[in-house]
Amino acid sequence: MFSRIFNLLFISLGLMSFGMTSYAATPTEPLWPTLKIAYFGDKVIEEDANDLLVIEAPKRAEDAAIVPITVKSLVPQSADKYIKNIHIVIDNNPEPYSANFHLSPELGLIDISTRMRVDQYTFVRAIAEMNDGSLHMVSRFVKASGGCSAPAGKDAAAALARLGKMQIRMRTPTIGESVQAQVIISHPNYNGLQFDQASRRYIPAHYVKKINITYNEKPIISVDAGISISEDPSVRFTFTPTENGILKADVVDSQGQTFSQQKEL
Amino acid sequence: MKTLSNILGLCAFVFLSVGCADEHYSVSEVTTGIFYHQGVDEDATESNIGAIANVGFIIGEKCVAVIDSGGSYLEGRYLRREIKSHTDLPICYVINTHVHPDHILGNAAFKEDAPEFIGHEKLPAAIAARQSYFAKTFQQILGKAYVGTEFIDPSLTVSVGEPITIDLGNRVLTLTAYSTSHTDNDLTVLDNTTKTLWTGDLLFIKRIPALDGSINGWLKTMHQLQTMDLNFVIPGHGKAGSKQWQQGLIDQIRYFTVLRTEIRKIIDNMGTIDEATETVGLEEAKNWELFPLYHRRNITASFVELEWE
């Protein structure tokens, strides 16, 4: 299923480069019915699943290039019943399917944040896929930023210069207690939609595709990321270390480059 | 006579949608031969035709340099008309101080003058990265005022560390490119004759500054500007003149220093962007126009930069 979704990603990127006009104005027709079929087929999605999930996003995208988005679960993960995946869809972005977080059943309460590019007025959706395959959605409406903010990097040279540099940031944890951690990768995350006047070509997409986070080699969170993720991708999450060990993040980008960072707890 | 009928034609064309705003569009003289139109402290709208930034021109003995062309094609037309009412000399340069729409969207209004368009070496890449987004957004925001707008790349660029001079006829301008500050493509224009500096958006007076580059870089550049020996300054936004700019720089340095200090604390304590936007720099609100529109965004932009210190 996920490879199908990312095939769609490339199909729509292809279309995009044939006609930039197709991405000219804020769509007046809601895209979601079409997107739902494209990404989830004829499966039933429970809407307004507010007893299971919360999505937080600013009402207005202050900076179109960096919009913090947080998803929290209200029911703790358990071996019998857990959220397997959280899909993020941003309806009016050039590539709406934005990320898929694969989650461990041992994560407890989910609390994940990332930063996205938001091009225009849009719904931002989180769709939880349970271990039984059922789908549950929450959404928020985000207004575009006005003014001179664009979903482009601020200092492409600085971002490229530190490409691949990574940080795992967290307070000193207490074993057995939940702790917040953040993985950041310095990466320009080029979305493939930028036209280079000099070469008369689109700058090829070059973005972080996969972020695998493990503790003592057991997966905690793994992210399939798309081009909506901001420059210098960031994933913030909570987890509970049950013993001392190594928190590790492995990253793969769309050109096959790999980056890695670990922290001993 | 021909110019007059052109103006009337233009006026009739825009009358239906935005009113004939050009009656109110005028420039004032900062010092001999240097004119500017002060932008309004608003976000761009169809009714203000995007004329929110300071734009203007310098007249030499041979020709005229335009410094920033306006926030829409229509503002570019009005600015060109003002130039024509002050001089018959040709327009030989259009200088863009950086990529933001309120400074470049009027460029196409000067195409018929076949000027040299000048910008920072990173301006072409910055235009390429934002063009489709700006086109889509500003078409909607500016409506009729946008019609005719084109994105025009500089035909001459200035590199960081290698200022260039251009001569308007017994009037030499020095163009200096900066490393990432307000944006990664900031350029200033110094008129050596009168010691007048056009700062572009390196300086906002009264209007809240907007960060689209680097907080550390911009602070460094502001300290550099403070040491300059100048008679007049035309900021990117706010009043031009001989007095306001020193205090303007002090205010802007204080604002970004407060932001940087408080954000660093939050980052050191593993805090989030959301925490920062809710708590940082709120005491600055009383000092700035349009504070709610850009303050949170400045925090967001600073936060993701300071995270890498």
Tags for this entry?
heterodimer, A: 265 residues, mainly beta, Immunoglobulin-like, six-stranded antiparallel β-sheet, 17 strands, 12% helix, B: 309 residues, alpha/beta, Metallo-beta-lactamase, Chain A, 8 helices, disordered N terminus
CATH topology of chain A: Immunoglobulin-like
Q: Determine the strand fraction of chain A and express it as a percent band.
A: 35-45%
Number of helical stretches of at least 4 residues of chain B: 8
Number of helices of chain A: 3
CATH superfamily of chain A: SoxY domain
Category by helix and strand content of chain A: mainly beta
Strand order across the largest sheet of chain A:
1-8-7-4-5-14-13-16-17
CATH classification class of chain A? Mainly Beta
Specify Rg of chain A, calculated over alpha carbons.
18 Å
Return the CATH topology of the domain at 26-241 in chain B.
Metallo-beta-lactamase, Chain A
Proportion of residues in helical segments of chain A: 10-25%
Oligomeric assembly? heterodimer
> Can you give the mean pLDDT of chain A?
86
Distance between the termini of chain B: 61 Å
Give the number of DSSP strands of chain B: 12
How many strands, which pairing sense, and closed or not: the largest β-sheet of chain B? 7 strands, mixed
CATH architecture of chain A: Sandwich
InterPro entries (chain A): Fuse-rel_SoxYZ (IPR030831), Ig-like_fold (IPR013783), Ig_E-set (IPR014756), SoxY (IPR032711), SoxY_sf (IPR038162), SoxZ_dom (IPR014880)
Domain Ig-like SoxY (chain A): 38-148
Protein name (chain A): Quinoprotein dehydrogenase-associated SoxYZ-like carrier
Domain Sulphur oxidation protein SoxZ (chain A): 172-262
